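Below is how a single chain appears once it has passed through the pipeline. First comes the sequence as given, then the structure the pipeline wrote out for it. We keep one example in the README because the format questions we get most often are answered faster by looking than by reading.
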Amino acid sequence: MYLPPLRIPVRTIGARTFDFSRRVAVMAVVNRTPDSFFDQGRTFALDRAVAASFEAVAAGADWVDIGGAPFAPGEPIPVEEEAERVVPVIAELRAGSDVVISVDTFHAAVARRAIEAGATVINDTTGLSDPGLLPVVADSEATLVITHSLATPRTFYPRPHFDDVAGEIAAFLAERVERALSAGVPEERIVVDPGHDLNKNTLQTLELTRRLSEIADLGYPTLAAVSNKDFIGETLNADRSHRLEGSIAAAVVSIVNGARIIRMHDVAASVAATRMTEALLGLREPAFLKHNMGDVNV
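Resulting structure:
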């Protein structure tokens, strides 16, 4: 059984503490955008986004990731508009829960306002594209997710090529981690994400998932954002509303290969799959024992 060689397995993120040597965190997704790739604007209205956040907590999410701008290519979202989308959701969720809250942004200005509103993680999916982001995180107590992606934010990246997909991604992340450490972000506040599907085709993402242990070997908690991604749709010939089973399978394989945070849309199903995987790996005990435990079979 592979267990990632975590440099600092016990992490305190906001009000919650995780021992990632024995626990996998489930991150829920709430996008306050009219054009998010999966929910297509279902949680764009403020009340819907807030309700979805609390529903995720009730379903067992350890973590809620709130975004105000899609990753996909398109017109840039003005920084002020992005902040106005995410900050009210963060503030309302923080007022009613101690759940880990991350903001999916690469803008330093949005990150600063999100932290002030109660976010405890900055989830940058662009590989530290904004040089102002690191000082903002370093001057706070927030955790930073460093993600592998190659394109300038919101631009196309045609025909991505890798000679060694996992090795090149690991090297990229190691370099970005060193950059964060040099800027004053301590290693106990760093998470890495290889960026499933981000500037990668389906074959590359499938290989990355098989070789995810090479990313986990960096020693930082690895986040696997696999839910409903196009590599699942293309593999199964499934549209976006029929990718749950493939998402669960990808999440389980990621956990077995060292992921310690999974970013998922269907929280209840993902929590159940994660807890079962933890038990199968010997990381947790069953909730109770009854079957064939006494003098009479039950």
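The chain has a mean pLDDT of 95.

See the next section for the split statistics.
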